[in-house]
Amino acid sequence: MTTPKRGSDGAKPLQRRAKLSGGRRRERELRIRVCDQEYEEFYEAATRAGLACSAFVVTMVRTAMREQRPVDGALVALHAELRNASRQMNAVGVNLNQLVRHANAHDQVPEPVEWLAAYCFQVVRRAEAVIVELGRRLP
Hints:
Elements: H1 36-49, H2 53-66, H3 73-106, H4 112-137
Helix pairs in contact: 1-2, 3-4
């Protein structure tokens, strides 16, 4: 990082990121949208750190990337199980829609409705159990 110079009011200006070697410019731009409160929080934190907002954000993101914990295999398995449950619930919803359409058109409830409803409750209960377990494992 560069050494900041004093401003005309004598205050120490915020530190910016060091220039690239060979007079090169940073060509890529990363834009994010934040609400007023988030902006104020970023700006205040950057000012406390003595950095310009962009330098602060880059520093924080890089730090977070370096400190990222390895992926917990159990969490990955729970995630996969939830995705599978979601697919099953979607399939059950499609089948229930078809059965209800048939019931409305023919004024009779097909036999598979009871079985399908029981299966749906079973899948939902399993998904809820996985969600509870996942919640226990999250920091």
